[in-house]
Design brief:
alpha+beta; 29% helix; Aminopeptidase; globular; 12 strands; 12-stranded mixed sheet; 9 helices
Length: 325
């Protein structure tokens, strides 16, 4: 059994493996490769038995905002083992191998979406994310032009990238998107229902949604500094979602969204999800103020923010679903 990086000429075989184990559309995994400007074939770690890929872990190379600063992140995804090779410890070996790979790249933090014991044993710690729910009535408004994003318009995408950066760094866990190709490929593909609020040719914010089981979920939301300074962009958030519900032909929908945005923590319904896990890989690669903290309180540090951008809310921990892997 070999534990190593995937060879470039094995990529199609790797796609065969993940689509087979997950019983999922091959295109999904292909999109997550070709739409990723930071893709690295050495980040695909595999267990190979007599020339056959039998287990794999992929490390997605990213940066995320943590206490107002970008830090390097290795996202763990595509963890999969063929049924006949399970219960042999292959996933554990690959997780250990991925840690060594991230250490070799000087990555500060690793994160994943899951809660299985295998991850906690290897050092990942669960950090809750909070979501609010409320009913929103559809209503057409006149202040902004609410329309779908035009990802073909480079100028428009650059405006989005600018307000995204200033807004998302107010939270811990949102990914940095400093490559336009990520917007025009990954974001366009993963957030097909993305809408902007435009006024006098200026984009004041945008929101991405997904409709499922009679609810409207917010995949991400961003607002300009000016509107955020007024009331956390609460008014823009409510106006946009109400208008979008009307454009969908609905009278009202139940809205689910990250509680740290708008007035989420004032909602009558707040749920906690402990499905995001973090592991410190290189403490020295974290912001200097973290060096003064104890590593065993890292989950708590994901909830709090530095004084200069702190809000009076329960948690600053946010992960936009658009960036999911």
């Amino acid at each position: 059994m070999e534990i190593r990086a995937l060879y470039p000429d094995e990529f199609e075989l790797w796609l065969d493996h993940v689509s087979h184990v997950f019983s999922a559309d091959r295109q999904y995994f292909s999109n997550h490769w070709y739409n990723d400007p930071w893709r690295d074939v050495e980040g695909i770690r595999v267990a190979v038995d007599d020339g056959t890929i039998v287990s794999t872990v992929r490390v997605f190379i990213r940066q995320m905002y943590f206490h107002g600063e970008p830090v390097s992140v290795g996202g763990i995804g595509e963890v999969s083992t063929r049924p006949e090779y399970r219960k042999r410890g292959l996933a554990t070996q690959l997780l250990k191998d991925s840690i060594q790979f991230m250490e070799s790249r000087g990555i500060a933090i690793s994160m994943l979406h899951g809660s299985q014991r295998i991850y906690s044993i290897e050092g990942w710690e669960s950090v809750p994310r909070y979501y609010a729910k409320k009913s929103v009535v559809g209503r057409k408004q006149q202040t902004w032009n609410i329309r779908p994003i035009n990802f073909q318009d480079t100028g428009e995408v650059k405006q989005l990238a600018s307000i995204y950066d200033s807004y998302s760094r107010k939270f811990n866990g949102a990914f940095v998107r400093d490559d336009i190709a990520y917007w025009t490929n990954w974001v366009k593909t993963e957030s097909p229902q993305a809408w902007i609020a435009e006024r006098d040719g200026v984009i004041d914010g945008y929101v991405s949604v997904r409709r499922r089981d009679g609810e409207l979920g917010v995949k991400e939301f961003v607002a300009s500094e000016e509107l955020f300074a007024e009331n956390g962009a609460k008014d823009l958030f409510e106006v946009m979602l109400s208008d979008i519900i009307t454009q969908m032909g609905e009278e009202s929908l139940i809205l689910e969204y990250p509680a740290p945005i708008a007035d989420g923590f004032k909602s009558s319904s707040i749920d906690s999800y402990g499905s995001t896990m973090y592991r410190v890989i290189q403490p020295s690669a974290l912001p200097s103020e973290f060096a003064k903290k104890r590593i065993d309180v890292f989950p708590d540090l994901m909830h709090y923010q530095v004084e200069s951008i702190r809000q009076d809310i329960r948690s600053h921990h946010v992960f936009w679903h658009t960036d999911g892997f």
